[in-house]
Every structure is written in C-alpha cells, then in structure tokens.
Amino acid sequence: MNTIIIVCISLLILVLILIWITIVYNNYKNLQVKIKSAENDMNTLIRSEFDIINNIGNIISNLFEEEPFKDLKTLKEKRLSNFELNRTLKEYIAEYYKYKAQHSSTFKENEELIKFSEELEETEEFIKVCQEYYNDNVIKYNKAISVFPNIIIAKITKQHEKKLYDEIEEDCKL
C-alpha cells in the first residue's frame, strides 16, 4: 500500500514538473514570436521609410538640381540589418530636415513634399512604437530565461539573451 502511494506521488510530481516545463517553454516561444513579429513590422516600416526618403530626394533633385542623398540608392544593395539601416536612414533624415529648414518656403508650397513629409513623420512614429514593443518583449524574454528556476529550462533548450533595439537619439529634428 505504501509503495502504491509513493509511486502515485512520484508520478504526480513528475507530471507537475512536465507541466511546468511545458508552460515555461511555451512562454519562451510566445515571447520569441512577439519579438519576431515586431522585427518584421520594423523591417517593413524601415523599408517604407527608405522609399519615402528616396522619393523626397528625387523631388529635391528635381527642384534644386542637386542630389541631396548621395549613396541612398546603394543602401538597398547592402545587406544591412534593421539596426544598421535605421541608423543610416536617421542620418539621411537629419540631412532632409536641414534642406527643409534651408528651403522652408519651397517645402511649404510643394504638395508632394508636404505629403511625403507627413508620411515620413508618421512612419517614424510607427517605428518608435514597434521599437518599444520589441524592447518590452525582449526585456520580458531575457528576464524569463534568466530567473531561477526557469534558467534551468533555458539552458537545456539553449535559449540565449536577445539584444535590445538601438536607442537612437532623435536630435535630427532639432
């Protein structure tokens, strides 16, 4: 009778451990899916931002007969990560705001530039939101794989810390 109770308790403990492992592992996977989704959203938005900046550059080239964003077209050929592309685009955006300040009357009169300027600002805001969502989930994931006893499951399933998305200063608008 005692052995039956011991076997039942052992089985119950084993089942509870397996349930705990499943819950912890599924939490890791859920957070990874959210992180990947945010990465994909940012990728789409950053590519859209690239296209907007390219369109603005074409309009400026036509208006002032000078090419404001040299080497912008070669960025597509490079295999840049979201981090690198976003950082590089911020430099072009800063250059755009300089042009806008220098030629404010022309920028205020040109409907295409107004439209693309609004799209650029919207896209920048969406990117910020995606970055925050990404970073929030990365923080949750990194915390989940580093606390005891979850760290045991993380080591067994080879989970690794993820890096936060770059915090890029927004001083290019100043």
Write up what this structure looks like.
With 174 residues, the protein is an all-alpha fold. The protein has one domain. The chain has helices at 2-64, 82-102, 104-109, 111-146, 150-156. Helix 1 (2-64) runs parallel beside helix 2 (82-102) and helix 1 runs antiparallel to helix 4 (111-146). The radius of gyration is 25 Å and the shape is rod-shaped. Mean pLDDT is 87; it is low at 168-174.
Key phrases:
174 residues, mainly alpha, 76% helix, disordered C terminus
Series of H and E elements = HHHHH
The radius of gyration over CA amounts to 25 Å
Helix content: over 70%
Task: Bin the strand percentage.
Answer: under 5%
Tally of individual helices: 5
Overall structural domain count: 1
The total beta strand count reads: 0
Protein structure class: mainly alpha
Question: Would you spell out the secondary-structure blueprint of this structure?
Answer:
Blueprint: H1 2-64, H2 82-102, H3 104-109, H4 111-146, H5 150-156
Helix pairs in contact: 1-2, 1-4
